[in-house]
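Exercise 7b. Backbone tokens:
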């Protein structure tokens, strides 16, 4: 009896046999690695602009690509909520089905509308990434969260690196056409869909499917309190009230200087970063137009930037400074560096300089991401932390959508790729100004206090 009582007080993940959760985590990491193996992904833009599809640069830049931003904006909130409500696996299946749809449309589609539909599914896959990153937390005890999250993230980065290297080797050394590379990618994403079907569907999630075991009493008590009480009525009603209460709590937390500063950085930098990622391959095609596929080095550059980004993220964990004092300076220096790199990419006619600037830009972004995560999460509960990042991502997506409508969409200014990158550089410059202004305001409030 004592042993049974002791087991009853443990979280679900700690009552799972030791080897079982290890196998589940290993399978999830293997799944994360394999679903990133898409060797044709780095070469989609030259494939669309080349003889296989023969779209014009204006069509790709101003008609096809903007759909990615719009679709991501449209599905972000529904997928965020459905991921938790449906307990991860159905959303991962949706993501895999969307990946298969992307490559079927790339291979079989011939119209602008088909490519716009392809970009819609691309937006779905990006929004669904939350399912993989949060799935790991349903498998292990809280004491193992940090280590397991690093394993799953490393598996994804290794998959991206392997995919980029494989694609570049196939193109440069093997002389494989972009069309064949996309057939290979279709095979890999189809295998990823099969792997998804064998994932175990968790019994619990962060918001809508809370565990009822006594071992999770602390977390349940926190949610019950936020729902308006800690009696039976509060337990019954938390599903309906918790998210709204937590949103109000996030609003109250916005007064914290460090949370506000790093959230502002997250919104501006994420918007500029992803817009640059969406359109940089078009920029490369304009700077270095070539009909020889073996001289297109998109895969190698993506691999190098992934490797540098992983190293920068790792190094950021060892930076020990007084962030309350130096945050504005670090953000200002890195942001000014990024704006300079964007300007270099936009003005140079040397493709290797452009490649180098791109690699350094991604590395500098990945350096600050783990620092921002720590600075935002350090004073928040797990539930509030997830919600804060969700809200930050939503605002970044709104900003990204506004910039796309004004700058890229043919119904807006419909700018070509070079003026667009100037706009992205201005986004980073605005972020720098906001960070410095916010820092000055915080110091002024401190002196007044």
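Sequence design result:
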């Amino acid at each position: 009896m004592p042993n049974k009582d002791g087991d009853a007080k443990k979280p679900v993940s700690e009552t799972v046999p030791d080897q079982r959760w290890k196998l589940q985590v290993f399978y999830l990491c293997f799944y994360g690695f394999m679903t990133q193996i898409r060797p044709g992904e780095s070469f989609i833009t030259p494939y669309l602009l080349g003889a296989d599809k023969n779209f014009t640069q204006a069509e790709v830049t101003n008609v096809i690509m903007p759909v990615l931003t719009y679709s991501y904006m449209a599905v972000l909130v529904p997928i965020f909520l459905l991921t938790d409500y449906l307990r991860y696996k159905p959303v991962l299946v949706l993501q895999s089905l969307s990946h298969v749809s992307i490559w079927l449309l790339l291979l079989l589609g011939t119209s602008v509308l088909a490519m716009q539909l392809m970009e819609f599914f691309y937006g779905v896959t990006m929004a669904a990434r939350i399912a993989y990153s949060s799935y790991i937390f349903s498998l292990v005890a809280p004491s193992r969260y940090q280590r397991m999250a690093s394993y799953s993230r490393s598996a994804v980065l290794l998959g991206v690196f392997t995919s980029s290297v494989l694609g570049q080797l196939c193109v440069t050394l093997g002389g494989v056409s972009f069309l064949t590379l996309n057939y290979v990618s279709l095979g890999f994403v189809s295998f990823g869909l099969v792997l998804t079907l064998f994932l175990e569907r968790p019994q619990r999630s962060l918001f809508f499917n809370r565990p009822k075991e006594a071992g999770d009493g602390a977390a349940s008590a926190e949610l019950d309190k936020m729902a308006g009480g800690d009696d039976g009525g509060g337990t019954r009603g938390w599903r309906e009230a918790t998210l709204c209460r937590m949103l109000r709590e996030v609003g109250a937390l916005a007064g914290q200087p460090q949370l506000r500063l790093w959230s502002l950085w997250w919104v501006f930098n994420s918007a500029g970063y992803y817009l640059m990622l969406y359109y940089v391959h078009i920029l490369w095609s304009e700077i270095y137009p070539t009909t020889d596929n073996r001289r297109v080095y998109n895969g190698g550059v993506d691999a190098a930037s992934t490797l540098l980004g992983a190293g920068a993220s790792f190094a950021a964990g060892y930076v020990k400074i007084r962030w309350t004092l130096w945050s504005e300076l670090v953000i200002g220096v890195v942001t000014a560096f990024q704006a300079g790199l964007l300007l270099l990419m936009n003005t140079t006619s040397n493709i290797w300089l452009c490649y180098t600037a791109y690699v350094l830009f991604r590395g500098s972004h990945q350096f600050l991401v783990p620092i921002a995560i720590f600075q935002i999460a350090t004073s928040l509960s797990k539930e509030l932390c997830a919600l804060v990042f969700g809200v930050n991502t939503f605002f970044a997506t709104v900003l990204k959508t506004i910039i796309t409508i004004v700058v890229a969409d043919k119904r807006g200014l419909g700018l070509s790729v070079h003026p667009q990158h100037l706009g992205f550089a201005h986004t980073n410059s605005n972020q720098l100004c906001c960070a410095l202004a916010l820092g000055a305001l915080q110091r002024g409030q401190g002196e007044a206090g």
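Instructor comment: The radius of gyration is 23 Å. Residues 59 and 312 are 36 Å apart (CA to CA).
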